[in-house]
Design a protein that fits this description.
The complex is a heterodimer. Chain A is of the alpha+beta class. In chain A, 33% of the residues lie in helices and 23% in strands. In chain A, a hairpin with a 5-residue loop joins strand 2 and strand 3. Chain A is globular. A 5-stranded mixed β-sheet of chain B has the order 1-2-3-4-5. Chain B contains 4 helices and 5 strands; from the N terminus they run ββαβαβαβα. The radius of gyration of chain B is 12 Å and the shape is globular. Chain B is α/β, with parallel strands linked by helices. Chain B has one domain: Transcription Regulator spoIIAA. Classes of the chains: A alpha+beta, B alpha/beta. At the A-B interface, helix 2 and helix 3 of A face helix 2 and helix 3 of B.
């Protein structure tokens, strides 16, 4: 089931290429049958991850690529897994500040990863072989309302 | 993203349409707010009715718009928030920071 929905994309580090990722992502999420709300929030999480890879990972060097992979994993194809990799120097997630702290509430940045964590079920950061950051985002499909399933099945 | 600027009863209305996202609408929003404030606007409403997607950069620009307006002695309100914009502002506890109105009429009357 998962093969036709999986994809691998390599894009140059330009913000306009985020729209290309969104087009391919939309097609996969449509095939997976996610409803509009879940499609939207996965879309935003991937936007944030790719934007971070372009801006903070690859420092907008167009010669460096961002790799985006989508797979469906698990014994029952029940996990949507999206991996975003850059070619930068990597970073320590422990350095992130809490965007909800009163002193950070009115800062113009620092919310992207918080949104990713809010919209996905699991986020892991690691180092990519050869250097760069690898972020792995997972969302459990069986918990989601999927418009291709009968209501009875959704509630089961 | 497209920005349309108009005046109504002494209030500057910025109608935003499309995506407020990194490299797309965020800079356009920043420029529109700065132009309005630099032009002497003291009452600004950002009409978000036709915004389809906002990301953390777009949220950051809304925060910057709010602080820029406040620091320059102007008032800035948000009107007609689509549910997903409301959700994303609530998640980061910003919904209470802004003056938010259900309609443009209410926002204009609030000044």
């Amino acid at each position: 089931m998962s093969d036709e929905k999986s994809f691998h994309l390599a894009i140059g580090s330009r913000f306009e290429n985020i729209e290309l990722v969104q087009l391919v992502l939309k097609d996969s999420l449509d095939q997976l049958g996610l409803d509009d709300d879940n499609r939207h929030w996965v879309d935003v999480a991937v936007r944030e991850a790719v934007a971070n890879a372009i801006k903070h990972g690859n420092l907008q060097d167009p010669a460096k690529q961002v790799h985006v992979d989508l797979t469906v994993e698990g014994n029952e194809d029940d996990w949507l897994v999206i991996r975003v990799q850059d070619e930068g120097k990597g970073f320590d997630p422990a350095d992130l500040e809490d965007p909800l702290a009163p002193e950070n509430l009115l800062k113009p940045n620092g919310r992207g990863i918080f949104y990713m964590k809010s919209f996905m079920d699991d986020i892991q950061y690691g180092l990519r072989p050869g250097g760069g950051t690898l972020v792995t985002m997972r969302k459990r499909l069986t918990r989601l309302a999927r418009h291709d399933q009968p209501e009875r099945e959704r509630q089961a | 993203m497209k920005v349309n600027v108009r005046q109504r009863d002494g209030v500057t209305i910025l109608d935003l349409k499309g995506k407020i996202t990194i490299g797309m609408g965020d800079v356009a929003l920043r420029n529109a707010v700065q132009d309005a404030i630099n032009g002497g606007a003291t009452k600004v409403v950002i009409n978000l009715k036709d915004v389809t997607t906002i990301d953390s950069s777009g949220v950051g620009e809304l925060v910057s718009a709010f602080t820029t307006a406040t620091n320059r002695g102007a008032k800035l309100s948000l009107a007609n928030l689509p549910s997903k914009v409301t959700d994303i502002l609530q998640i980061t506890q910003l919904i209470t920071v802004f003056d938010v109105y259900d309609s443009e009429d209410e926002a204009v009357r609030s000044f």
